[in-house]
Design brief:
Chain lengths: 143, 170
Amino acid sequence: MKYLVLILLVLPIFSGEVAANQNINDKRAKFNYQILCQGCHVGDGRGGKGVPNMKGRVGYFLSGQKGREYLVKVPGAANSALDNDQLAELLNWMMIEIGKKSTPADFAYFTAPEVERLRASPLFEAQEYRKQLVKKLFPLAAQ
Amino acid sequence: MKILDKLFEKSARSIAQTSSRRGLLKSLGAVLVGGAAIPLLPVARASDSPQYPQDVGDPSSCDYWRYCAVDGFLCECCGGSYNSCPPGTEMSPITWIGTCRNPVDGRNYVISYNDCCGKTQCGSCLCQRDEGDRPIYRSDKSNDVNWCLGATSSVYHCSTAIVVGVAFEK
């Protein structure tokens, strides 16, 4: 009984704590998102007129290599005023905070060298490319 | 079955021997009171960041701290406020975002300059401070873009200045 009381007392302290990854500085990543992405993608990632909805969806792109590459090559990411470390951090933060359930729990984190390699060849026709990619990755999806 | 009987008998007896009849009430009380006290501990409070800064200044004046990067008419003078649109207009979800320093606490806050759209230009309180404004080739950092492009009507009326977070300090 004593142990049960102890566990019940300690539990709320830990449950409020987000399982933080040591590679992600949450505050910095969120700030970068707000300054560089939120203007169009909106605070929770749901987008709007002509801006794709990332909320609970963006993680689906991780299901294929081409999709994963798209997330770095898309102009907003590839051309952003962030160095490779912070871009990788921001992408990982987005996969977790905005991708939510669409992101596999065991997804491989983006790394700075990977981001550096991919952003060197950015997309110039992102919208058309995305359309084809979605068709290929998710043939059954509505959009 | 006998084993189960014995097991339960044994555990029931051991509970009866080691705990008092009011023991449950006592520990339940401790859990309830203790649980309620946890949010009061400094642990929980330290993680909260102040989302609503202390404020000084006149929101209808261009000098007001939140307007450091604004370029347009202040909704405060157009029948709205610094964080709401005048009646009959629609707030564009797509916005220009910058940071401004709050003179009260010296911290930088992330400000979202959501435009209000759907009526012709308000014409009152033109405010053009443009701090942090970048040329159009950095379109996400340029306030010359008509941000009403995200609203139903792209006709610009006035601008708000909404605090959406605290800036990350290096």
